[in-house]
C-alpha cells in the first residue's frame, strides 16, 4: 500500500510521487535517464551542491534507439523507469499516446514554469489535446551546413563561409557541387551517409512519414519519394562515404577526412569536434546556408513518468535543467541548442564563439537559423522507428549495392509493419 509522506514540497496526491529512494548517506536519490550528449554532467554537480539532500544518478545510453526501447518496455511493465526520462522528438508521439502514464508538469512542476517560456512549436508538441504538458523542452536542432575548408580548397571550390552559400542554396546546387568535388578530390566523398542527407531533407517537409491524422503516408507522399531519388542518385554518382551514422567507421571518418560536408543540426558541432579531434581544429567550418532554407532536426524533452518515486522533486530538477541559464551552459558544453525564448535572446548565447570551427559565433548563427523554423514537423506514432530502423538500413543497403527501387519497396513494407 502506498503511503503519502509529508514533504516540504507540496504534493497533491500519492500519485504525484512518494518520499523517493534514499542513498546510504540519507540523501534523496533522483535518477535521470538520457542518451547521447545532453551536457548535464557539470550541471548535476551544481544542483547537488545547491541541494545537499539530493543525489542525482544518471543513466546514460549512447544511442537514442536503445534508450527509447528501454523506456517503452518499462512503461509496459509498469516499473523500472527513472524519475526523469528524456524523450527525443522522433519518439514523442509514442509518449503522447501514453500520456496517462506521465505527469502533467503544469500540475506538479514549479508554478512559474509555464509553456510560454519555450518556442511555441516546441511546447505545443509536448502538449496533449486536453492541454496537459508532458515534457519540458530541452534542445532543438536548427539546421546549418558544416564542411571541410581545406578539402573544398583542394577541389577548387570556394571555402569561405560567405562564399559557399551559393553551393548550399538548394539541394540541386548541393548535389551539383558534390559532382564537382568527387571529380577533383580522390578518395574523399561529398557526404558521410545517404541516411543523414535523407533525414535532413525529410525534416524540412510540412508532412513527413505521417499526416496530422497519424495516417502513414510514406508510399503516397511525393516529397519522400523525391528525396529518396535525389539521395540514391547521388550515391550512384559516388558522393556518399557509405558510413552508418554513429558507427565506429563513421567516427573514424571524421578523423581521417573521409567526407567533405556534413548536415549540421546545432548538436552536431559537438559530435564533429569530439570525433574529428584536435588535429582537425580549424579545418571544419559552419555556414548559415542550408539547402532549401533550413529546418529542425532533433531536440528532446524531459518527462516525469508516474512511476517516479519523487515526482515533485523530479519535476523541479527537470525545470532547472531546462531553464534558460542551464540551456545556454549545455550548449556551451555540448552544442545542444536552447529552446527557451529568453535563452535565444541571451547575450551569452549570441556572443558564444566556437574556437574549433574557426572562431565562428555559433550561438548567433544558429539563433538566426531558428527563425527559419515556423513549425515542427508532425511526428507520427512510429516516426522514430521508421527513420532509424527502416529508412536508415534501406538507404545503407543501396550504398552496399542494392537497387534503389528494390530498397524502396522494402522500406515501404517495413514502415507499414512498424506502423501497425
From TrEMBL:
Alphabetized SUPFAM superfamilies for the sequence: Periplasmic binding protein-like II
Record-linked Pfam families: SBP_bac_8
Region annotation Disordered: where it falls in the sequence: 398-420
Database matches in InterPro entries: Bact_solute-bd_prot1, SBP
Protein name from the UniProt record: Sugar ABC transporter substrate-binding protein
Gene name tied to this protein: cebE
